[in-house]
């Protein structure tokens, strides 16, 4: 009797697992009803991303392509690269639709520019899965996003703990004008509430190694001996550690990100650090969401990822000295694929 009941029980949206750390977003969050987009396999899925501007985006696409290659129901997985150009991404979307895609998976290049194109695809009855970057419309099928406020806050919480709630810190932000930068910073502000920690210097390093190094070198002259450093990205953290080493200065606690290159310098310098996590597996999770919709399974409209940070006690279980600096953690790629893509 129990076996019969289990076999006939309806699949619920919460039963569909997309990625570790990814869960339905709180608040108003309707469910896409079972069967809404059900379609017999094989399927053709379009995958549009805003560009390969950094190693994280490259790995995100690789994770998505691997996930698609492992599903025999996906006959074609069509990848397009917008080269950071909204006009090109709109043209890419139109071309994918013309090729008869059964679902569209997209990391939008712009908060606003591609929204009308996304709305048009949704209105045509094609399921649209948004991931990694946001849009200013809710007329899509499913959205998967990281939580930049959580990302910035776990970094801030680490410094609050390390400094016992008091001291001066540098703040190395990302790219000015980008929502991800502002929201990560908002998370830091939330973490510092009620403490005696002050921001003595604040600069934008553009999430870049070169710009981050310039900023850290300048700050080391103008505002020496900070008690801690809040850095919004791995490349800037990497650069800052090297600046302190080059100048022979004691390195204060510094935040980092889940990147193999950063983990190497973190370990070599014996730095007091941690890594906030923004998994590139989001690309694969978005492919899984598209498959679930085409299989007729129910999903929530919005999902959010808030994975736990990687602290020093777990660092060495992720760090791969045999692989190159471009690997991001956590990853859903198997060992053979990691060796193929990231071997030194």
TrEMBL record:
Domain Periplasmic binding protein residues, every copy: 45-297
Keyword Lyase: no
Compartment(s) where it occurs, according to its Swiss-Prot or TrEMBL record: Cell envelope
Domain of life: Bacteria
Keyword vocabulary terms for this entry: Signal
Primary location recorded for the protein, binned into one broad class: other
Alphabetized Gene3D superfamilies for the sequence: 3.40.50.2300
InterPro entries assigned: Peripla_BP_I, SBP_2_dom
The keyword Signal appears for this protein: yes
Family stated for the protein in its record: Belongs to the bacterial solute-binding protein 2 family.
Name of the featured protein: Ribose transport system substrate-binding protein
């Amino acid at each position: 009797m129990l076996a019969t009941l289990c076999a006939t029980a309806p699949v619920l949206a919460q039963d569909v697992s997309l990625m570790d750390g990814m869960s339905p977003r709180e608040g108003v969050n309707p469910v896409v009803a079972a069967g809404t987009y059900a379609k017999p396999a094989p399927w053709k899925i379009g995958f549009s991303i805003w560009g390969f501007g950094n190693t994280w985006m490259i790995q995100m696409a690789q994770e998505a392509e691997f996930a698609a290659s492992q599903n025999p129901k996906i006959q074609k997985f069509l990848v397009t690269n917008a080269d950071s150009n909204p006009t090109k991404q709109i043209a890419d979307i139109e071309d994918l639709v013309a090729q008869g895609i059964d679902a569209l998976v997209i990391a939008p290049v712009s908060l606003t520019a591609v929204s009308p194109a996304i709305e048009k695809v949704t209105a045509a009855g094609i399921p649209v899965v948004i991931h990694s970057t946001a849009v200013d419309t809710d007329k899509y099928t499913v959205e998967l996003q990281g939580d930049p406020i959580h990302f910035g806050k776990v970094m801030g919480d680490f410094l609050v703990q390390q400094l016992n709630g008091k001291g001066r810190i540098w703040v190395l932000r990302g790219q000015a004008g980008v929502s991800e930068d502002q929201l990560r910073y908002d998370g830091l502000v939330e973490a510092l509430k009620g403490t005696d920690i002050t921001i003595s210097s604040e600069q934008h390093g553009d999430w870049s190694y070169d710009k981050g190094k310039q900023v850290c070198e300048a700050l080391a002259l103008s505002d020496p001996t900070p008690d801690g450093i809040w850095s919004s990205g791995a490349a800037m953290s990497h650069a800052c550690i090297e600046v302190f080493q080059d100048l022979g200065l004691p390195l204060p606690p510094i935040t980092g990100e889940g990147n193999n290159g950063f983990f190497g310098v973190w370990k070599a310098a014996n730095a007091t650090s941690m890594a906030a996590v923004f998994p590139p597996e989001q690309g694969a999770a978005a492919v899984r969401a598209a498959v679930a919709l085409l299989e007729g399974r129910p999903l929530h409209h919005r999902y959010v990822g808030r994975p736990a940070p990687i602290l020093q006690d777990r660092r060495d279980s992720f760090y791969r000295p045999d692989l190159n600096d471009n690997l991001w953690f956590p990853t859903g790629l198997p060992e053979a694929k990691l060796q193929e893509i990231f071997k030194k």
